[in-house]
Design goal:
Layout: H1 3-20, H2 22-34, E1 41-47, E2 53-59, H3 84-91, H4 99-105, E3 109-111, H5 118-121, H6 126-132, E4 138-140, H7 142-146, H8 150-159, H9 164-186, H10 189-204, H11 223-232
Parallel strand pairs: 3-4
Antiparallel strand pairs: 1-2
């Protein structure tokens, strides 16, 4: 699929989604305004297309000081920095909805690699960094699907006495980079459609595993990561039934 066609589809689908989600958007904004710290929007710098920084839009789910306390840009299961309403929004992935605005602005595509903060992006090997920025990051993607429960994986590593960043850098990032490149090499209309459908199913039915929609994913080489992924979703990451659902 050409870049211009992908952009056209991004704009059309994002515009339709924004129109359909206008009322839920307003309700979430009202609830956030009346609860927690009264803030609605969370803007954070991420690495984007061609390595250029941009600000990603999200609904607020954490305390205002979250980027300077705890594990900073890494969130653990039951993280005390997460606000009560934010916990629900994160679980349902509703906090990600404002990224529709990033799509309309041209910062992101609907499907692509998951954009990271500069500190985390720098942990990718140089070759992956160079290749991954050749396309726009996405609201969802193969990496986001497989690591939908990323917080639980980091927490499992922390429970073994490992540092959260060590787990993220040594266990999650290498395989996430492999998944993002896997998508990049095979991207096209039908793969994007499968990823969007799988994402919709996972959001509407948490804990489900519609992996046959995205067959042929590579398998993690890390025994720890393979074990964690299989524990969270029935099946197997790889050829016929990839495993486990994340940013």
């Amino acid at each position: 699929m050409s870049g211009s066609l992908k952009r056209l589809l991004d704009v059309l689908v994002a515009s339709l989604a924004l129109a359909l989600l206008a009322i839920p958007f307003l309700l979430i904004m009202l609830v956030l305004r009346l609860t927690g710290e009264g803030k609605v929007w969370f803007l954070q710098q991420r690495v984007g297309h061609r390595g250029e920084p941009f600000h990603i839009f999200k609904f607020v789910t954490m305390r205002a000081d979250s980027e300077t306390t705890g594990n900073r840009d890494i969130t653990l299961r039951g993280d005390p920095r997460v606000l009560p309403v934010g916990r629900f929004l994160r679980m349902a992935k509703l906090n990600e909805l404002p990224q529709i605005l990033n799509v309309l602005r041209g910062d992101m595509s609907l499907v692509g690699w998951r954009p990271l903060v500069p500190r985390s992006f720098a942990d990718y090997p140089p070759e992956i960094q160079r290749r991954i920025v050749a396309m726009k990051p996405g609201v969802t993607g193969v990496g986001s699907l497989v690591f939908r429960d990323e917080e639980a994986i980091v927490s499992a590593g922390a429970a073994q006495g490992r540092q959260a960043r060590e787990v993220y850098r040594e266990e999650i990032l290498p395989f996430k980079g492999e998944l993002e490149l896997w998508y990049q090499e095979r991207r096209g209309f039908w793969l994007d459609l499968r990823v969007l459908l799988a994402t919709a199913v996972l959001v509407l039915v948490p804990g489900s595993s519609p992996w046959r929609l995205v067959p042929g994913l590579p398998e993690p080489q890390s025994p720890f990561l393979a074990r964690q992924l299989r524990r969270r979703t029935p099946g197997k990451v790889g050829a016929d039934s990839p495993t486990s659902p994340a940013d």
